[in-house]
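Quarterly update, task 2.4: iron/sulfur cluster-bound model.
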Amino acid sequence: MTVFSGNGFKKNSIHADTWAMLEKARQDGVETVWDRLEQQQPQCGYCSLGTSCRICTMGPCRVDPFGDGPQKGVCGADADIIVARNLARMIAAGASAHSDHGRDILEALYLVGEGKTDTYKINDPAKLKKLAAEYGIETKGKKDLKIASELAWEIMEDYGMRREKLPLAARAPKARQEIWEKTSTYPRGIDRENVEMLHRTTMGVDNDWVNILLHGVRTSLSDGWGGSMIATELSDALFGLPTPKMSSMNLGVLKADHVNIILHGHNPMLSEVIAAASQDQELLDLAKENGATGINLAGVCCTGNEVLMRRGIPMAGNHLMQELAIVTGAVELMVVDYQCIMPSVVETAKCYHTKVVSTFDKAKFPGAEHVSFDPQHGMDIGKKIVRMAVENFPKRVGAKVNIPVESVQMMTGFSIEAILQALGGTPQPLIDAIVKGQIRGAVGIVGCNNPKIKQDLGHTELTKRLIENDILVVVTGCATVADGKAGLMVPEAADKAGPGLSAVCKALGIPPVLHLGSCVDNTRILVLAAALANTLGVDISALPLAGAAPEWYSEKAVAIGAYVVASGIYTVLGTTPPVFGSPNVVKLLTEGLDGVFGATFAVEPDPNRAAVLIRRHIEKKRAGLNLPAIDPDSIGLPEAELALV
Ligand code: SF4
Ligand code: MSK
């Protein structure tokens, strides 16, 4: 087997599997996301600053932030309006994506409850009943399926316009809910907030940029405390509550002698049935007949995170690995659902024997084979797709196969319930450790990869700086793969943490970086923050917490960032959002929000500097709670600064 050193590609990523496969892609004549980023240079300055507008056909317009060119669009919109509208529409798109994902799970729950599918069953009746109680549904003497049907019917109202308040938002501390009430940002109906956001930002409606952004907040909250939370909670009820378990990561999880199937996208409905179908004896026998030892599943992006959390299925990689997994030449089939799937994977697959199969009618890919997913016939469809992969194995070209690295171990499965169980059933031990200063605070590092940033450098450097300063890190989404591949998510990584955090991790047998799940599972962070705040009798904004999205690219990340800040958690973005064309919007996001929501955004591409900002913030919050605190101004920059690109 050719050994690809990947020399020449080390600027693109911190990981050897990426370097090697970029070199192989070059040799195989395959174009990647990094090549296309280069072809796009220079990217539009107006769009980067958020001051271009193509909302109507009097435009497209642009406002020159440096004052030389036009200062208003044809309709008279200035930079503040244009930037606010663009940002608000990003929030609506991201919130809609998560919430529509939640809707699909909700429909599946309804079908299960009505006995219209046997593809799924209720895997966690306790969670189902807890949710039913939150929605005021009597559960006594009722069968699980009846509860599921009534609960699903009730949650469907969350998407409509009859609610004044989303029920799951009542999990937030009272003080937080009062802020949302006072600012008219308490989320009502999920679809309602998103549609209203699109309405307000069409030409000639809401021309007050602050008012636009306030509704952006409400829209994001309908995602965080609505659509995404519904997706997480109902997935747990249907597919099972994640519990701690070991798994593995990187392209080394692909097996040269197995039929390899990549599960890519976000929605676990399909991947759950593929996981079950891959155990089917008939298909396993067929795999053997075709010369394979077995059937191997590996995840990419958040579908990967979902099956990793619940089933321990290994992850081949995060967002920037989707093309490179195919470049190994060892993938028989990539099955995709929706979100974060580059259309380019179809072209990449053409250079190998890999089949790309799309499955959701709302997410088709020209050139891919489409097998329409229907939860009422889920298992038949799952088996059909696995069979396609097995039958494709003999077409594999041995000379093109290159699995470049050995896989790395990691620990997954930290649902909030699992964390509480590890703590003895209450958050009190975590609170005690924070009070004593053993753990100084906690930070959620979330979000994507972006080829503008050296892959995984932002995630891993920030994580290392935080844990070595006794700050517990929780991860979701693509940040998980970054930290997992870097060896930060095994119990032994406690040795890389500061003495306080290390001692807590060793006592509990957990890593200093806990995997909480997929992008919609960022709501687990909200639930944990709310539980801590409610136990202490304070608002979330009083807690020594922060969020970070060092390498985000997606509109979904904008929605997540907005609901995290609006929930009272300071958030540092690594990739620059397209807002810098409006100094007013920037000032509001980085300063003004503090007086209203008790938290702000910061933008800092250098993870070492981001760590300093976060540590200073955490120490300020500790001081505010009268906990032993370090003088924030004494926390300086570490010596090394990093080349990010
Ligand atoms: Fe131009 Fe105004 Fe139309 Fe936007 S809405 S494209 S700024 S005329
Ligand atoms: S998959 S949204 S690239 S985290 Fe959720 Fe990764 Fe970001 Fe997609």
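Highlight for this quarter: Residues 413-642 form a domain with the Rossmann fold fold (CATH 3.40.50.2030).
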